[in-house]
Amino acid sequence: MYMKLSSFCFLISMILILACKNKDNKSLYPNHIFEYSENLDSRWISFENITGEKGRGGMANHCAKGHAYDIIPAGETITLVDIEGPGIINRIWMTIRRRSSYELRSLIINIYWDNEEKPAVSAPLGDFFGIGLGRTATFESALFSNPEGRSFNSYIQMPLKKAAKIEIVNEMEHPVTDIFFDVNLQLLKTWDESFLYFHAYWHRDTSTTLTKDFEILPLIEGKGRFLGTNLSVIANPRYGNTWWGEGEVKIYLDGDRDFPTLVGTGTEDYIGTGWGQGEFAHKYQGNPIADVSKRQWAFYRYHIIDPIYFKSDIRVTIQQIGGSSKRDVIDLQNDGVPFIPVSIIGDGPSQRHVYKAENFNLEDPDYPRMNSWVNFYRSDDFAAVAYFYLDQPSNNLPEIQDKYIRITKLN
After folding, report:
1. Contact 202, 123 (CB under 8 A)
2. What is the pLDDT of residues 58-98, one digit of tens each?
3. What CATH architecture applies to the domain 202-323+378-407?
4. What distance in Å separates the CA atoms of residue 394 and residue 391, rounded to the nearest whole number?
5. Which of the 8 DSSP states describes residue 209?
6. Nearest residue to 204 (alpha-carbon basis) of 1, 409, 405, 408
7. I need a labelling partner for 338 at 20 to 30 A (CA). Which of 5, 25, 55, 316 fits?
8. pLDDT per residue as tens digits for the range 346-402
């Protein structure tokens, strides 16, 4: 039995290795660190070699440190990368001197593929690199890191067939006096038609609508893979210290409309924790900011070992549902705070579904006791970046929202 299992594993390994080979038995893009490929040429792009050309680095000051950083004037755009493909961007590193919420939400990163006029990536700088709220934190995930809270790293691999352009837009009234960056990539001699284009979409709703799910990713048509999301929440103070995170993530795949194929069980459940969201940062899931005093949370989930593919379309949402004890919710009701009850949970499996029920009263003695738990629709401030791959270099998503929407109510 052991020999049969070993032979089977060896056969699978050989199939995977051969799948990465072309007809000449050469790796197009190696999966192992010990593989060599004639298909790849390494390039670093920074202000010290803005074109990434061979033998053209460090020329600003006779190969001494001469052009490590630059400025972005107020209201202007600077192009960091403008290259021809094919190739794959493997890493983006960046830092700026001032990293206030105003800076991190007023600076926009745009990435264009194959000379498209519309960016495939358009997001506030801070949010794109893994944490929302216009805040920074020391963390590391499989896709992003911020080693000491002062820089930004992306390790997302981004193929380009014809061309790539990365730009930073400064929508502030003052310049960015020093921006440092480094983009590491491989130029390819051969393009693989199975490669997908990387996209990212940011959106904020400062006051979500009762019973309406927040769209992490609006409907996208095409073939691709949902890579994951980082979300940020500013809880509405009208609900006091009641819990905001009972909403379930729903993913509508390939023609789903009324009901999704994939559905979670709660907000903290989606990021792999339970009974609330404290501060933590793991490879595929984390909650780097859990600021109870400000009622702010920033968290992420990346579908790397649990991939989500779509063949024709995808839409991703999260319910706007919170919860608290029945006593607390009755107080909200008496204070005129807008909410809509969803369910009343007693001991064990006891649960009363009251959403859309007629003529119900939370104080009805037939319902579970006063310290039972009530889930209810509520309205909070949600924002998210959705990361995904698509078989097209551009998408049909809305343009990034106005700066006022990006920066308002941040503290």
Report:
1. yes
2. 999 999 999 999 999 999 999 999 999 999 999 999 999 99
3. Sandwich (2.60)
4. 9
5. P
6. 405
7. 316
8. 766 678 888 987 777 788 777 767 678 999 999 999 999 999 999 999 999 999 999
